[in-house]
Amino acid sequence: MADNLVFKIIKEHLVSGDFSGEGEIGIRVDQTLTQDATGTIAYLQLESMGLDKVRTELSVSYIDHNTLQSGFENADDHRYLQSVAANYGIWFSRPGNGICHQVHLERFGVPGKTLLGSDSHTPTAGGLGMLGIGAGGLDVAVAMAGGPFYLSLPKVIKVNLVGELPSWVGAKDIILELLRRLSVKGGVGKVIEYGGPGIDHLSVRDRSTITNMGAELGATSSIFPSDEVTLDFLRKQGREEVWKPLAPESGAHYDEEITIDLSSLEPLVAIPHSPDAVKKISEVEPIAVDQVAVGSCTNGSYSDLRLLAAIMGDNVIHPGVSLVVSPGSRQTYLTLAREGVMEKLVSSGARILESACGPCIGMGQAPSSGGVSVRTFNRNFRGRSGTADAQVYLAGPAVAAVAALKGFLTDPREIGSYPDLPDESPPVIDDRMLIPPRKENDPPVEVLRGPNIKPLPLNKPLPENLKVRVALIVGDNITTDDITPGGSKVLPLRSNIQALSEYVFDALDSSFTDRAKEFKSSIIIAGDNYGQGSSREHAALAPMFLGVKAVVAKSFARIHHSNLVNYGIIPLVFKNPGDHERFNIGDLLVIDDVYAQLSGGNTVIIRAESGSEIEIGHNLSERQIEIIRVGGLLNLTRGDKR
After folding, report:
1. Contact 614/579 with Cβ under 8 angstroms?
2. Does residue 265 surpass a pLDDT of 80?
3. Half-sphere exposure of 502 toward its Cβ, with a 13 Å CA cutoff?
4. In this predicted structure, what is the pLDDT of residue 641?
5. Residue-level pLDDT at 69
6. Rounded Cα distance, 19 and 3, in Å
7. Alpha-helical regions (H) of 119-170
């Protein structure tokens, strides 16, 4: 059978398992990336493994999330991360150098390589022909230690792009259209592979916008072929030597095929509060806008911000609108400044932020109470902006620019002709904010730990019988933001699990933490797609610290399912979705001979205090069951070393 592009890369990196679809596969990881909101925990885990150096081809530690330094915590974390990177053979991208996904695309990405990142948008690298996969920090730490990354063999969806995009329609509209068709859980267990004649008209920047938001589909990864467009991008980056052509074999097999006629697309917008709540902007009534935010790892590239400036022209933003711009990388910032584009943006009234994630994760620039914010970002979950009742709309840079000018959300085609943009000039290449690891003969660097960096809590081995109380009952599409919030108040606590645990489920049920402490051993009941969104392992680690032993859900998001396993929390699945309604907070539940039940098949019996029994399923591999038995992946990894 002819191989698709995804399977070609997996075959080159396969270290265990096979292509039968039974059980897990293990793949070799060439590169890793971390960011500062997840990296501190990952490197604490790496340190505990007793290595002297990472065993990947390349690993990079980026500072891009916690750059709003309103207290000592973030700066302390950055100092720790820089000292660890120097010692362990890891590149360090300094604060202000840019968002991990865009910088990695520009300076480190290699077609055909595998990239594992402690951030859910790691598949951005698929725009360059890499197989980028988001994971929890512990999985990334194991990969840096030379271990394989395990996953179920994904199904591969071919998205065939035909035609050419009309004026005012961009790459953001392509991925919004796919989200409209498939939903936020339509990509779970799948990799999206793009092809067709339409890709010839999409730059690497366009492609990376699309692969970036594949995370919102729940997809394991997304990828484009490596072709002449890829070569042109790498040549401009001065890295053409890493290029190689990559494409599926003729007659390649796909589990599903979808065709999108680019010429038929219109400007689209995702309305509050989900990336898949997509409508044609022509169908959305004009809505007064309070804030416009352009940038992030999705649409913070040179071409995105140049388009924004061209549409703004010599005009000034509407008096009722605040426009903020966050370039995705320092390279983009410098290139825009060299060409005078930054001056035009500032003259238009835009407020220029540093090259970091910023408002995308609620780290500053929260909208006004009940405010409407049009953002070129990738997520519009309720409260993610930092304002609980804000109405966040996701759109491309053209729609955002017109909203900033007009003061209301409107079809950009109504303002006239699309701007005539000159050919792009080569980017400014300046790698002085990238610090290489110390050389082999250099003296060790002292690892600096601030008072906010606390020892990593470890789980205990699985007991013979579980006796738990129901601490929380939630519905569908619970995000990792719902479990452990982002924003400037909570994100700085990522290195201090005890302090972070005080905020678990705070927005959904502020009494959860006290209740979990009272119960000591508890269980969570959930609906479909539990744990969607960010890869943050803290959404498993903090509940584990509070005594959560299991989660029973109708279905799980991929990364969160893995994170639960990695911290010894048992992810169980309702065989009968209607059983979700049979539970009440405080119910006492018992699982007898829990390890024997997990390893004896895919059915687990939960017994209620009343004596009634419910059959629950699981899809755990033998490896995952063993991880749970010993209390987590770190316990297993350290035990293997002993």
Report:
1. yes
2. yes
3. 7
4. 40
5. 81
6. 11
7. 137-144
DSSP alpha helix (H) spans, 463-566: 480-483, 487-490, 497-500, 512-519, 538-545, 558-566
- Whole-angstrom distance, CA of residue 96 vs CA of residue 621: 41
Picking from 128, 124, 186, the residue whose alpha carbon sits closest to that of residue 159 is 186
Indicate the pTM of the whole model. 0.94
Confidence of residue 1 (pLDDT cuts 50, 70, 90): confident
**Hunting for tokens 């479990």 — which residue is that?**
483
3-state secondary structure of 453: coil
d(CA 165, CA 243): 27
CB 571 within 8 A of CB 551: yes
- 424 Cβ contact list (under 8 Å, min separation 6): 302, 303, 306
Q: What is the pLDDT of residue 465?
A: 95
Cα–Cα distance for residue pair 289/281, rounded to 1 Å: 14
Question: d(Cα 492, Cα 496) in Å, to the nearest integer?
Answer: 9
Residue with tokens 């649409």: 299
Sign of CA dihedral 196, 249, 203, 365: positive
Calpha distance 188→620 (Å, rounded):
16
Inter-residue contact 536 to 556 (CB < 8 Å): no
Proportion of the chain above pLDDT 70, given as a percent: 100
- Residues with Cβ within 8 Å of residue 442, at least 6 apart in sequence: none
Please, which pLDDT band fits residue 287 given cuts at 50, 70 and 90? very high
Helix axes 36-47, 538-545, angle to 10 degrees: 60
**With bands split at pLDDT 50, 70 and 90, how would you rate the model's confidence at 19?**
very high
